[in-house]
Amino acid sequence: MNLLLLDPFALSQEYPENLTHTLNYGHSTCIKFNRKGDYLASGLIDGTVIVFDFETYGIARVLRGHTRPVQSLSWSRDGRYLLSSSRDWKCILWDLKDGSREKTVRFESAIWGAELHPFNHQIFITALLDDAPTLVDFSDGTIRKHLLSSTPLQKDDEDDEDEEDADADRRERKHDKQSTLVATFTRSGQYIFAGTSKGWLNVIDSETLQTVRSEKLTTSNIKHICFSISGKQFLVNSSDRTIRLYNTPDLTYVDPVDWDIDIVHRFQDVVNRLQWNSVAFSSNGDYVMASTYQDAHDIYIWETTVGSLVKILEAPREEIVDVQWDPNRTLVAATGLDNGTIYVWATVTPQRWSALAPDFVEVEENVEYEEREDEFDIIPDEIANKRKLDQEDDDEVDVVTIERVRGEFSEESFVIPVLLEEDDETFDSSDSD
Amino acid sequence: MDKMDMDRSADSSGDTTDSELPSHPGDALRHRYVSTNANARAVVTTERTALPKYVLHFILEGHKAGVTNVKFSADGQWIATSSADKTIKIWHADDGEYETTIEGHGRGINDIAWSPDSKVLASASDDKTVRIWNVMSGRILRTLRGHTNYAYSVDFNPKGNLIASGSFDESIKIWDVKKGVCLRTLPAHSDPVSAVHFTRDGTMIVSCSHDGQIRLWDTSTGQCLKTLIEDNNSPVSCVRFSPNGKYLLSGALDSAVRLWDYLKGRCVKTYQGHKNEKFICVSTFSTTRGVWVVSGSEDGRIFFWDVQTKDVVQILDGHKDVVLAVDAHPTKNLLASAGLDGVVRIWMER
């Protein structure tokens, strides 16, 4: 509700510029904002998952269960459940109401990452190291695992010009052994986009579990695939040091065979030719940010329409691993590699002095003050009061109906209950490390 | 019922049972005005919400000194009362049964606030601390120290993770409930801060002070967003947001309760008729059946005004001294009132 009163120029700042907070609770390896952006989950190197409350920058929950570093985190749509995967070959679904484990799923190999279905917290997809990517479904109570294929779909093209090329292509698709490194749901949950070690993008229908489309995007490993919040674009980060930005094809009305997967931009570091550790979209999808590998302790921010670099955020002394943009505010959180500190960049707006008195106005240049005719008239109190009361409208005043303010996040988001009792969990930051 | 003869329909003894008009919860308030002059009596046509007919339901006694505040819990099951006798008492809202007493403050308590889950209570006291209590066990959970003078007012934010407190030291402090530390101190006013209140979504805080100003603050940055002031600079004794957060209701020591549209920055309604020149008399909205503005008065009476027409629609008698606090139940047609006479009265409308 404060949006109506805030300075519009302050609100229009598109990316953060100042390092405002540093959170030092254990060694963080990966972070994830919830959908509303008021909680941040952080996975530590000892397996603990911490949920930060970003209104107080304090700890809301400490979730203990994993024994090895946390690989990935994924929030449910309503913000009540959190899925964490770890190098101990387990995925745990946490219920944040009381911090209990809703479900624990064990796998036969190491896990690259796990992600919850955007609408159903009882379905998730994982990419495994030595196994096929698995869709896990426990909606009916039992844990069902469905294995998905990593092999690209055979192209059924009759109008392929070159017979040799078509043969080579078919051979490549069929025989090149590859594993899926990353798998993510589309924004509607209808399809799964999986990236393989040979640079193929496999699109799998999440109901039929069949691969419906495959496209070779690059020749090297695909490390990350992430969608913008609107779902209209997606980013692919691969080991060939390039970040590719694509327009998402029309997933609802067009057949997968007819999809156009068009590349919009390629983002590269032409100066140092470095790898990118992690990539993310901005809250409105207009910016893309990525963290650099090794010696450069930077986060690069590009603008998506033209593809130009607009900002470099520098982290003090540490290489940045995981970067996240708050879905509703201009705020960026990132983890450091050496200490696992979480850095937070935000916008800082100065106090508007015109707010301190009702008749203060901020002006650009000097204004000559012209007095009103009756400025210095002396009016007896009773008449002045009567005049004021007369000016009051007879309009209807609605004090009860709640109106939605444009620009505010209006969906129901789970509020993590504050635990105040002495015997509740405590977190000693000196414990881990 | 014609408006003319309901003018001073005072409820005298309070324990008579009227034959009631059936109340229709959720009745929309529909008026049609013939004259637009605010001073002329508006001629009201049909389709009007029936006037409030509150009668005394029960009396809660037990405090040894004046009762400074009374609050219904968010779930509507409990009543908490704070007093100058340094204690807080918890009562059942449905039958007035006494439940427990919470003790621990070193001096009289000025204000109490329920957490949104109704399990935890915050209290502000003259001993300069704000304390957080577990209601059922009466155990103290946190003591928030930092104010340098009497803590006068306290409010939880709707998520329950922040507390704002206003104090005689002219500042407002925002506290982290879980850790019990002060996150921010706002240099709010130039005179004691008499009330603080969060909006429905917790993004803004409104505060008022004896210097006559009402200020709106942004919770996350602590910056002042707007200032409202009445021309005669009389101290503002209480302020709160309307249920939809678009208007502010303030009571001032010139015997007037005002409704402000803070976006336009001016007062849109003034409610008069009661006496309020020395004490802090809380005013509030009652929205369970009709939309009324309720306030206590220094002559021991409780006034109800119609939000739109600004007419006095009911006056309740019974208290022997200044009525300091009133509070409306969130869902039922119940009203609680408390004052310097140490007695809490619960009024009901059937």
Task: Characterize the structure shown.
The complex is a heterodimer of chains A (433) and B (350). Chain A is mainly beta and 433 residues long. Chain A has helices at residues 8-11, 163-175, 381-391, and strands at residues 18-23, 28-33, 39-44, 49-53, 58-63, 70-75, 81-86, 90-95, 100-106, 111-116, 123-128, 134-137, 144-147, 180-185, 191-196, 200-205, 211-216, 222-227, 233-238, 242-247, 263-268, 276-281, 287-292, 298-303, 309-314, 320-325, 331-336, 342-346. A 4-stranded antiparallel β-sheet of chain A has the order 1-28-27-26, with no helix packed on it. In chain A, strands 2-3-4-5 form a 4-stranded antiparallel β-sheet, with no helix packed on it. A 4-stranded antiparallel β-sheet of chain A has the order 6-7-8-9, with no helix packed on it. In chain A, strand 4 and strand 5 (58-63) form a beta hairpin. The two termini of chain A are 41 Å apart. Helix content of chain B is 0%, strand content 46%. By secondary structure, chain B is mainly beta. Chain B has strands at residues 10-11, 55-60, 67-72, 78-83, 87-92, 98-103, 109-114, 120-125, 130-134, 140-144, 151-156, 162-167, 172-176, 181-186, 193-198, 204-209, 213-218, 224-229, 236-241, 247-252, 256-261, 266-272, 283-286, 292-296, 302-306, 312-316, 323-328, 334-339, 344-348. In chain B, a hairpin with a 4-residue loop joins strand 28 (334-339) and strand 29 (344-348). Chains A and B meet through strand 5 and helix 3 of A and strand 18 and strand 22 of B.
